[in-house]
């Protein structure tokens, strides 16, 4: 099982000019506690997207209701996508 990253994460894509893959404009949350709170996450994305009022509160409530569980398949998938050992071993 991969290490717990204990972070929010975000990937922002932009339309590409005919290329098969979209242009990645922002990719954060790949290291241990890089984005520790929903408010820090939203501060990063405000330049790229409209953020609905109350989203930070909803994300924090969700985080508290659904604590990280390394046995969940999505946790394994995310750690695999982000790369095993990328700063999560602390």
Write out key terms for the chains shown.
single chain, 90 residues, alpha+beta, two-stranded antiparallel ribbon, 3 helices, 32% helix, 12% strand
- Distinct helical segment count: 3
Alpha-carbon Rg, integer: 14 Å
Structural class: alpha+beta
Give the overall average pLDDT. Answer: 79
Spans of at least 5 consecutive residues with low confidence: 85-90
Tell me the series of helices and strands, N- to C-terminal. Answer: EEHHH
Major sheet size, sense and barrel closure? 2 strands, antiparallel
How much of the sequence lies in strands comes to 5-15%
* Spatial shape: globular
Give a structural overview.
- By secondary structure, the protein is an alpha+beta fold.
- It is 32% helix and 12% strand.
- It is built from three helices and two strands; from the N terminus they run E-E-H-H-H.
- The chain has helices spanning 38-45, 55-65, 73-82; strands at 10-14, 23-28.
- Strands 1-2 form a two-stranded antiparallel sheet.
- A hairpin with an 8-residue loop joins strand 1 and strand 2 (23-28).
- Helix 1 (38-45) packs across helix 2 (55-65).
- The longest helix is centred in the middle third of the chain and has 11 residues, at 55-65.
- The chain is globular and about 40 Å long.
- The two termini are 15 Å apart.
- The model is unreliable at 85-90 (pLDDT under 50).
């Amino acid at each position: 099982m991969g290490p717990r990253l204990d972070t929010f994460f975000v990937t922002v894509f932009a339309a590409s000019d005919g290329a098969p893959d979209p242009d990645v404009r922002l990719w954060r949350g790949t290291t241990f506690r890089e984005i520790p709170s929903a408010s820090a996450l939203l501060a990063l994305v405000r330049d790229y997207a409209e953020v609905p009022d109350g989203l930070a509160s909803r994300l924090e409530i969700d985080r508290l209701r659904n604590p990280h569980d390394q046995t969940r398949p999505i946790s394994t998938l995310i750690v695999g996508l982000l790369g095993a050992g990328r700063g999560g071993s602390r």
